[in-house]
Amino acid sequence: MNWLKIFLFFSITGLFSTLLFAEECKTDPFPEKDGRTECDMVNSIGMKFVLIPAGSFTMGGDEYENEKPKHWVRISQSFYLSSYEVTQEQWYTVMGNNPAHFKSEKVGMISRNHPIEQVSWNDVKKFIRELNQLEGGNKYRLPTEAEWEYAARAGSETTYSFGDDAGQLGQYAWYDSNSDHHTHPVGERNPNPWGLYDMHGNVWEWVQDRYDKNYYSRSP
Predict the structure, then answer these.
(1) How far apart are CA 211 and CA 167, in angstroms?
(2) Is the bond leading into 220 cis (omega within 30 degrees of zero)?
(3) Among 19, 98, 161, 202, which one is most buried in terms of CB atoms within 10 A?
(4) Which of 95, 105, 83, 85 is nearest to 14 (CA)?
(5) What predicted TM-score, i.e. pTM, was given to this entire model?
(6) Residue 87, Cβ neighbours under 10 Å: how many?
(7) Is 183 exposed, middle or buried (CB count within 10 Å of its CB: 0-12, 13-18, 19+)?
(8) Are 208 and 15 in contact (CB under 8 A)?
(9) What are the strands, taking DSSP E only, across 26-161?
């Protein structure tokens, strides 16, 4: 199972997706036409969120020991997840700094829409606190690992959200074979079926949970 194993070859402390709980969407979250635009949300700094409906899925995989055994997980509450990784511009708007390594001079292009990286989990938690304060509420947090994998799989049971054919990976992800060894603007590859971009590739992403290599073996 390759959800967290195919990111860029460099080991950087990375980006994250921000989550907020959703009020019930009054329209079909998966309309047959025009994507899910009626349920999308955009916040005060231009972050776009899509509605992820409650549901169940098989979490884990057979390839790595810390992903065994596969087990059934129920996501009991719908939530909104940002369509894109948090960008350098969005980070700067909230935090007033840009700690990213892959800035314009490194990547040879304007980097404001590249994902923020070189941020610790604690840095991310501070960003979320500041974003909540900016909007006068307490609605943002990191997704749990289960919520992240559920959203990344987007209803699939295959190796990738688009199937089992690794030959298609370049259409959906920036990784060591096509990235020229640097990050790229968010949203340039194809999204997964639920409208989420860069769930494969570009950079590692933080989740809320503490890592425990034995958790799956005793997970409820």
Answers:
(1) 30
(2) no
(3) 202
(4) 85
(5) 0.84
(6) 23
(7) buried
(8) no
(9) 41-42, 48-52, 55-59, 71-75, 79-82, 140-141
Contacts of 205 by beta carbon, 8 Å cutoff, 6+ apart: 14, 15, 16, 17, 85, 148
Q: Which two tokens stand for residue 120?
A: 């610790």
CB atoms within 10 A of CB 107: 18
Tokens at residue 216, please? 């799956």
pLDDT tens across the length of the chain (220 residues): 333 323 332 223 334 445 554 444 544 444 443 344 567 899 999 999 999 999 999 999 888 888 899 999 999 999 999 999 999 999 999 999 999 999 999 999 999 999 999 999 999 999 999 999 999 999 999 999 999 999 999 999 999 999 999 999 999 999 999 999 999 999 999 999 999 999 999 999 999 998 898 888 888 7
Report the C-alpha gap between 39 and 54 in whole angstroms.
Answer: 14
